[in-house]
Fold each of these.
Amino acid sequence: MKQLSDSLLIQSYHKAIELNLSEEFVNQIREEIRKRSIQHLINDFVTQVG
């Protein structure tokens, strides 16, 4: 996950939730988002996508 851009990581997070992937996987993505301090991008992405 460290190789993913911030944008791709956020997209992956939303897609994992949409596809109802395992909670463990979603939590791994969420943890990487937290480490990068980019939580604010989660809401920004939703706003952009509509």
Amino acid sequence: MYEVTGRVERMERTKREEAGAEGQHARPEAAVNPTVTASGTPPGRAMTSFSPADEEKRRGVRRMKITATGLLLFVALVYVLAKWAENSGAGVWAGYVAAASEAGMVGALADWFAVTALFRRPLGLPIPHTAIIPTKKDQLGVSLGEFVGENFLSQEVVRQRLRAVGIGSRLGSWLAEPEHADRVTAELSAALRGALTVLRDSDVQAVVGEAITRRADAQEIAPGIGKMLEKIVADGGHKRVVDLIVARAHDWLVLHDEQVMDAIEGGAPGWTPRFVDRKVGERVYKELLRFVTEMRDAPSHPARGALDRFLTDFASDLQSDTDTRARVERLKVEVLGRGEVQDLIASAWTAVRSMMVSAAEDERSELRLRVRASLLSLGARMSVEPKLQAKVDSWVEGAAVYVVTTYRTEITSLITDTVAGWDAEHTTRKIEAHIGRDLQFIRINGTVVGSLAGLLIYVVSRGLGA
């Protein structure tokens, strides 16, 4: 039996060497093109090499094979000696030993056949349902993919596992640590800077300008302006503006008295004497200055009341008067259509981007400080509030379930396609290197269990026969 086993191993080693030589001669492009292996498949798709750990495992498998085969030869030798002793009249014990060793040989051979049939054809014979791994590799890959999809990528399993992890609570405790909040803030700032750097100003400006223009065109602005003006007048918010305008008008009249009087004289009829025009101009200027001064100093001046009534009526017209609303809409279209306004809208993005980039780069900027404070607050809340934890867990579970249910076929096909791209012979040797040592224990156990079972059967048979 040892000679047969050795012969089989030598045949397999010879086949592997011949296959390696054929690969080197038949596919010379693998030597010049590192992206193509000897089997014609990309290196990322095929298992084409053994790591030092794999080689160590293969040596362990060979040692266990020698041990299992040696045990088989030992029970075979015991069987021969026991039968010789039994035929020589050594006593009843020889029959027990012969029965145990005979059953041990049967168990060892049966398990040898079963283990060998997983990886290759025993003794090279074309026995059906042998060499299962190399011949059924693709089917095993499909079955493995289906198994993973049904048992690991199901909605129930994903939800149960994530719920057991408690992501909301752990994330809250993690974010509540200042150093972790600083790290997340820095990463968010880097991402923001990267996104703002990648975006082209011209593209963003065009999008912003179009969005603002389209939004303004789609919505009538007169009623909104009317409501806002009505509230401002009712709250007296316009009075400061009136105060500012009147004060500036008074100061301007004081500084430009000669210009005002010259303008009034210039509008007088040509037939009036010059001194009369001068007197009229001075009188009009003094009255105008007095009016503006009284309006500035008297909050209850009648002109102020008239202005309040005007603004109130105008706010009402903006909301209800058709002609006023139509004129405002025409003015809006005209203003938005001007190139200066479009340039102003487009340039707003440049200012915003520059401000955001500067804030993201400055560790002490208000933006980063607020983000950090928000993260710390969120982490503290998440670590103690069950409702918030449940909400975060629900979001994570929903996202994970969506990915699993939507892309389960793609995920499982990755397993199937990867296994299908492996070289059958190399895959067989790789798998055998990883699990072959344990399988050799099956042979050893089969020898021991077979011997005990044979001994038990022999004892029972002797007892019933007696």
